[in-house]
## 1
Amino acid sequence: MSLKGKRILIAKPGLDGHDVGAKIIALALRDAGADVIYTGLRKSPDYIARVAVDEDVDAVGLSMLSGSHKEIVADTVQCLEALDAADIKIFVGGTIPTDDHAGLIAAGVCGIYTAEMTIDDVLAAIDKELAA
Amino acid sequence: MSSTTESHTDQDEPAERTPPNKPNPVTPSGIEVPVVATPDMVDFANVGEPGQYPFTRGIFENGFRGRLWTIRQYSGFGTAEESNERYRFLLDQGQTGLSVALDLPTQCGYDPIDPMARAEVGKVGVSLSNLAEVELLFDGIDVGSISTSFTINGTASISYAMYCAVADKQGVPREKLTGTIQNDILKEYVARGTWIFPVKPSMRLIADTILFSNQQTPRFNAISIAGAHVRDAGCTAVEEMGYTLANGLAYTDELIRRGGDVEKFARRLSFFFYVHMDFFEEICKFRAGRRLWAKLMKERYGVEDPKAQMFRFGVVCGGSSLIGSQPHNNIVRVGTETMAAVLGGAQSIFTCAFDEAFQIPTEHSAEIALRTQQIIAHESGIARTVDPLGGSYYVEWLTDQMEAGMMQVIDEIEQYGGVEKAVEDGWLQMKIAQRASERKRAADTGETVIVGQNYYRRDDQNEGIGEVFKLDPQATAKVVEKYERVLDTRDSAAAERSLAALEKAAADDGENLMPYLIDCCHAYATVGEMIATLKGQWGEFEEPVRL
């Protein structure tokens, strides 16, 4: 796996406070050798985009369980574009209904990782995206 | 935990995996269980009688014979009008208590027009930004004749103030109000995340609600100390109870500091847990927690009144034990968990709908969840005699083991410096994140068996879920429109006066804030305005981000 040295921001956008999934993935990425930054709760898409640029990350992981993923993804994509950072990849996790997956991919998300995947599968998928 | 992974290391074809054809001898809390339990393993003198200290066998001498538990389903979504309609449906179906789910902006103290709120209005519950919305929510429902539970924490004092104000408006005397606000901020810092203020003023606000409620709404539970969320976040059953009792002790200390009489306020403290799938561990969790709480009340605080020693609790059956694959299997899980809750002596039970793992329940799935409880209550006969498992060698042994484990958890926190320090430092949050990772790994490797997820999978397993509940896409716009109308039509000077009085009271640690909050509600001040006023005095919690 080539996650070693990759810089990844794990973020909790919006008001949702369920941060276990975000922390599990952050810990797993760190154990796999990535440099992980975790934002903590209640961050705006604008804040997340600015941290992503300031920290020069390769990817941003957005964890969302409150059903507001469509709005938050659209806003985050827009904020990254505004900072000339559209090359930073976005992946999402949390409670994301299957019906919404295609829309999120079309909006610019590179991967959707839900609780039923194993940690190793999530790491492998992120690894593949970042190698591409 | 024991290693049982050798028989299923083939990661390439997880769909065909089957678990070992024998039970794991170790419980999820890590207790190694004997092949057979024998009388010499139990000190029966510890057990006692039902309705008597230390209440191992329940808080009532006649168990459920006098009255069954309260069947309480969690609902509320979109607008107050939609929720009101669902409540009337559930009351018509024989439900005996209402449960209000609130949207995140209301829970975190933002009005619907706040930029932080925009994407979340009405998403995970109903938006109650001001008294007009609460009046709509209870339109046609007599708040004096129902019991209402609000799942609210950071802004619980305001929801409670709104409920008192609605009673005033309906002409219902406040002392008739029954119900619960969750109002447990300590676990929000650790697991659920709807904190607002720093720990100390938050503790004060909670103590204020409890002391006010003791006087003005004596049948209302102004706190429900909750283990549910740390459990769902990754804790074991033993840790869930240990952390929750530790939080209960912290609130008790704060209430005493603010002049409360423990013999009085302890009678209205209540608790709230998840029930997961390990049947006997869950039953014994409740028996052990009930006994340990009574002992702590008596031995630490000298509480003599049995009613103030009693550990009263409600439960949710489901939570993270429900999974998205082969979702109809969740009906069986919820049924099993409900039986554990009854055998553990729960006072109120909420059963999750089978589709709750991935969506807001539909009317159909919500009805099955309700019927599950009714079948267990009226057909199974398990509520017929008090604590039917009492005296079982295994159940009493496991109760003893779990109680000892819970006490260890409490000791560890106290050695660290107490709950408040543990959450301010992020120490407890970090421990729970590590537990969550361990639990996820155990599911990934197959050490924990989850039927339909890591074993017995099939390719088409998510089909046949049936209807999907869709939120009204106009819900946010409707909420915002109503909110703006309230701002336009209220007496602005009165609202401002009430907020100014609140600000002054917040600066004085000797004041109880509840009367001021109720005045604000009557003046149609909004949740966002009240919270902003208090933030001005107290600041905000700074989340310690530690991994």
## 2
Amino acid sequence: MSNPRASPDARRRPFPITPRIAVALSILVAGALAWMVLDAPFAKLVPQEGGLRVVRAFFARALTPALDYESPVPESTPHILMQALAAARRTLVFAAAGMSVALVLGIVLGFLSTTAWWAGDLVGGSSPLRRALARTVGPAVWSASRALIVLMRSVHELLWAVLFLAAFGLNTGGAVAAIAIPYGGTLAKIFSEMVEETPRDAALALRGAGAGPLQVFFFGLVPRAGPDLAAYAFYRFECAVRSAAVLGFFGFPTLGYAIAQSFENLHYGEVWTYLYALVVLVVTIELWSGALRRRFVA
Amino acid sequence: MIPGSAAFELHGAGVVFSGRAALTEASLVVDPGEALALVGPSGAGKTTLLRLLNASQAPTSGSVCVDYERLDALSPEKLRAVRTRIGFVHQDLALIPNYRVLSNVIAGSLGRMGFVASVRTMLFPRRAAVERAAAILERVGIGEKLYQRTDSLSGGQRQRVALARALFQEPSALLLDEPVSSVDPARARDMVELVADISRERGITLVVSIHDIELARAYFPRLVGLRAGRVVFDGPTGSIAPRDLSALYSLEGLDRVEPARIP
């Protein structure tokens, strides 16, 4: 830069700006700028006296979750542990219902948004129909499904929930759809990427043995990506459980609803009880999916 | 014509990949039930020629006929039907590693059925299909591997799975691409012998690409030499002069037969 002799001998410069360093530097600069724009957010994290009392009271109950209600309840109310169990069960049901729809959406849109069912190398043939498929129909369906996936994913499940609440009121179907839509989009995106990255040799071999495009896709490509697809679907199921719990804050009868109510009444022990129920639920799913993976993948 | 065995014809077939000729003016007639080896160094066009024969590759010039029908005149459905009759064992085997051996073998029959039937067959294979797969695996020497995961097998065993998948198609021709490249010499000999025997038993046409001249001479009555994308000799094994064979692999003169560059 300042020294004209340096340019033909760039390797000897003390600090060569490689692309990698440039990227790292620009990330650092972007981070610093964000802090400045937000006016040093940590400075405002010092709690007020009242706030500090709440925090202390909340964490004081972390190791002593409530084993009974902290205020009188009607006699017909089930025991708090039964209540937590029931809420956990409903959380699981909401998550499972949302995921089952999301899986169907993910598989269908994931298939449509890969190039594998129309790109020349896998489908082959040169009839006018095939050429039309590869030139117009395929790319059109591919772009349309990609756009749909982006739309589904770019709205968070909580925003979908707010939208459906406004439209349909407190409707179970709304909660399930709020999970199913963004999760379906995410599954579709990841599924199609995994399938596109799968080695195509076996798929091409099946095509060479006369298999059709659908068969090539579902028996030559998908099974090979299967373990990864399954692992990712399990991970998303775990996420769906947490999302279902949070949907309770909007009034759906999941763990979030119980947490929100107890929190409003300052019953921190109860909050911890429900939080631990959520933790147990997530850990159980993790153990279960791990066991399944070992059984089928290893 | 032997029933259930395929005939192939290439007429001046050429294949050009992004400006580079992989095969130039190749002509070849393979009669039903014949067994022949394509010999030549790597890059000579052996794989391309095999891919022409099972319609995996369309020729850029010239024509390809299978069972006396020009492939470029066939509808996609007819083309699929032709492919189901031709078993192809790829050099890289092209198996699905996390399938059981059984599933990989049965996948050979997908071309003969519709999508719904293929879902059923792959998930819940009929007993008859399982027994047929088991019999074929037995014939290729790995009968006991039926329910093992494919990626738990050795290279030689996986090669036999690929052969079994091709045989499960009940093909009228078997095409093998470099069956000896992925295994040690002793196993390579076994494999070539096995393929030659099976083709004779079933009366099916056999075309094998092979760079090992000695193996080719030992097991195939007809040799076709390829060099730089051109057929340089073609005839009964006994009639081919050792000089022609050694010329196939010499570096001399390669510049003269360098494939034509398309501007």
